[in-house]
Design goal:
ligase, UDP-N-acetylmuramoyl-L-alanine:D-glutamate ligase, ATP binding, 34% helix, Rossmann fold, Protein-Tyrosine Phosphatase, Chain A, 3 domains
Length: 452
């Protein structure tokens, strides 16, 4: 009997692509289909000899023992309809992962609205640096690792735990499948307006997650997040660990340098300073959450700090593409008002008096919904100039009208690049924020600025 065959629909998404890498490493025969085949995931899959089919035409769908259906696919997809009509076996990615990869593992899960990818990468790197060959799946490209997912050889698995739904046939949050031993909840805000109508629905999903955790498990939360506290009040069966910036807490941090590139941690009375390449208060929160998570696996504060001092970050998470005296170019994944605000605060604290030019794409369903427009307006206060990208001219005109800083609409990427190069002052900091590729703005700006 040959190897079990898996075909993944939506394989080029960061999560489903990660599952493909894990399945291949575990000995399964893996193929996949997608309509959006592009780097870096296409390159990762190709490097592991995983064949990817362009599109979902029925004639191109190979025979498989099970079909994993990504949550981007719905009932009107021709491949999905073929699988259902033919009575072929199928599963969601999270359910398959839980049954075939996570079973018997000690799972460390990172959840929350912001910072999941970075915190998951930090935890994985700390454990790796301390000699543990852990498994992990990260919805991004961690710069300290060659791949976004791997099996590892021991019983520890670190996973980015998303509250988005599992599949069109399983509307529960992905993380409900994971049964973590250690859970980090970074923060909690309204997001995913396409599947949740308000924050209470998201809080209910987190409550359901907490109900799956054993009494031996631990939950790590920031002390002052009131929405997480409301979830905790709904029911808690695990030990609770809190942290923050308040020095009266058992676990806190404080900046040594204003941009948080140097931080002092205090963990239950033990103190340690850290200098690293990252910056921004939000990354200090991510770091302390990571330190507390690995402490449950007996990794000391000193060893955690040593690892984080060599943490290289994650692609497109406050990634400095070019840094010169003449200009700085940064690419970031921020696509929510809070993330935009925290990112710009970090940039402002790091680059002080320099002019900050921000390009922001209104791409996610939540951003386009208009529900966060008032917070979006406030989120850009630390920029000097903002360029808004998106198709809803009415929404963008309103943002421009009420903006606290100079704002413009991006009518074309080419013109935006040309104007930026032409109007650039010495020392300017240019930052792009989007959860998509923003019309290749980053690549085009990088090329244009390097040759200016």
């Amino acid at each position: 009997m040959g190897r079990e065959r898996i075909h993944i629909l939506g394989i080029c998404g960061t999560f489903m692509g990660g599952i493909a890498l894990l399945a291949k490493e575990a000995g399964f025969e893996v193929t996949g289909s997608d309509e959006n085949i592009y780097p870096p995931m296409s390159e990762h899959l190709s490097s592991q000899n995983i064949d990817v089919i362009d599109g979902y035409e029925i004639n191109n769908i190979p025979k498989a023992d099970i079909y994993l259906i990504g949550n981007v696919l719905s009932r009107d997809n021709i491949a999905v309809e073929h699988i259902l009509k033919s009575g072929l076996p199928f599963s969601s990615g999270p359910a398959w992962l839980a049954q075939n990869i996570l079973k018997g593992k000690r799972v460390l899960a990172v959840s929350g609205t912001h910072g999941k990818t970075t915190t998951t990468s930090m935890i994985s790197w700390i454990l790796e640096s301390n000699g543990l060959d852990i498994g992990y799946i990260i919805a991004g490209k961690p710069e300290n690792f060659k791949r976004s997912a791997r099996l590892g050889s021991n019983d520890i698995f670190v996973i980015e735990a998303d509250e988005y739904d599992s599949a069109f046939f399983d509307k529960r949050a992905k993380f409900i499948h994971y049964l973590p031993e250690v859970l980090v909840i970074n923060n909690l805000e309204f997001d995913h307006a396409d599947i949740y109508s308000d924050i209470s629905q998201i809080q209910k999903e987190f409550h359901n997650l907490l109900r799956t955790m054993s009494m031996k498990s631990s939950i790590i939360i920031p002390d002052r997040d009131l929405r997480i506290r409301e979830v905790i009040k709904m029911g808690l069966w695990s030990s609770l660990i809190t942290f923050g910036q308040t020095t009266s807490l058992s676990n806190f941090f404080e900046p040594v340098v204003s941009d948080y590139s140097k931080i002092r941690f205090s963990i239950e009375g033990k103190e340690k300073e850290m200098s690293w390449k990252m910056f921004g208060k939000h990354n200090a929160f991510n770091a302390l959450a990571s330190i507390l998570a690995v402490k449950k696996l007996n990794i000391s504060l000193s060893n955690s700090v040593s690892a984080l001092e060599n943490f290289l970050g994650v692609s497109r998470r406050q990634e400095v593409l070019i840094e010169k005296d003449s200009f700085v170019l940064i690419d970031d994944f921020a696509h929510h008002p809070t993330a935009i605000k925290e990112t710009l605060e970090g940039v402002r604290n790091r680059y002080k008096e320099r002019r900050v030019i921000a390009f922001i794409e209104l791409r996610s369903n939540t951003m386009k919904s208009g529900l966060h427009d008032q917070n979006l307006i406030k989120s850009v206060e630390n920029a000097d100039i903002v360029y808004w990208g998106g198709n809803d001219k009415k929404q963008i005109n309103s943002l421009i009208k009420h903006s606290p800083v100079k704002s413009n609409h991006i009518n074309s990427i080419e013109k935006a690049v040309k104007d930026t190069v032409k109007d650039l002052n010495k020392g300017d900091v240019v930052i792009m924020m989007s959860n998509g590729n923003f019309g290749d703005l980053g690549k085009k700006l990088k090329v244009a600025l390097e040759h200016s």
